[in-house]
Amino acid sequence: MKKKYKSIDLFAGIGGIRLGFEQAFKENIETVFVSEIDTHAQKTYQANFQDDFDIVGDITRISNDEVPPFDICLAGFPCQAFSLAGKRKGFEDDYKGISRGTLFFEVARICEVHQPKVIFCENVKGLMIHDKKRTYSIIKNRLEKDLKYKVFDGILNSKDFGVPQNRERFYIIAFREDIHAESFELPTGKTHSKLKNILEENEVSAKYYLSDTYLNTLRKHKARHAAKGNGFGYQIRDLEGISGAIVCGGMGRERNLIIDKRLSDFTPVTHIKGEINKEYIRKLTPREWARLQGFPESYQLPLSDVHMYKQLGNSVTVPVIKEIALKIKEVLELESNNRK
């Protein structure tokens, strides 16, 4: 059976956006091209998606004719340049000789040639206000005036889509001008969950429990910042509540600590300073992070914890993507029926 829509997955990460679209479109979507520069992310992606083509690395080295024809462009272009937590250099941001802020223009370059029906982009909400809104104005103008697309955008929070994570992200959905997309609107999301619902079913390894020495360091760090009037530092989350946003690095794990009293053996399984804390304070596991992002249980986490935390923190919340994709699907199906 021929797939109805062909998609490409740019800045693919570990495939969260693709997964959401596949859940929405089911057998009616086929990924025909994937680009992801991080070799570790490539390994996780390949463990979960069986494509008959190779993942392409650096998008700046891809010529337009290397990309096969497609209907839907998925692009979670790098957010570091626009993040509220970062230095916010925007289009001036440089990383290993590549300007991350300008990587959106690689998306535009490919889409200008191939003219897909839909361009879908996900980014941090800081993109919306960066540089007094000038950055997003440039992006929107490129889509509307140069590429002739109708642009819809907005901020959605993962906590409204069935996962217990407070994660606001900015979504851009652009329909080709000839597509009748007047009916499109972003989903509102009304399904909520609690942190206790994503916990491991059984007792987890002692390696996830903090040492008393490290916990003491975190407390001193938090106290120093509190004395300066800052709210930085570790946080123990209420299991009846939700987590904060899980992030790529830094305090992502320490800001989402929990108390889990199921630990039965306090013998360290890794080299730590001091002893395992007797307050039962632990980090969430990579599988729990995957659940916070709405990845299914069948999704494989093949690499070490350090890589999985980074990749999951960098990824998207799959149920949010799925709900947006369902709205996109409605527009495309209406368009298809009108042309019959």
User: How many β-strand runs?
Assistant: 8
Unreliable stretches: 82-88, 90-101
- CATH topology description of the largest domain: Rossmann fold
- What percent strand? 5-15%
What name goes with the CATH superfamily of the largest domain? Vaccinia Virus protein VP39
State the helical fraction.
25-40%
Span of the ends, CA to CA: 19 Å
- Overall 3D geometry? elongated
Mean pLDDT across every amino acid position = 90
The largest sheet has its strands arranged as 2-1-3-4-6-5
Structural class, judged by helices and strands?
alpha/beta
How is the main sheet built? 6 strands, mixed
Order of helices and strands: EHEHEHEHHEEHEEHHH
> From the alpha-carbon coordinates, what is the Rg to the nearest angstrom?
21 Å
User: Which architecture of the largest domain would the CATH scheme give at its second level?
Assistant: 3-Layer(aba) Sandwich
SS field, number of helical segments: 9
CATH class of the largest domain: Alpha Beta
Number of domains: 2
- What's the multimeric state? single chain
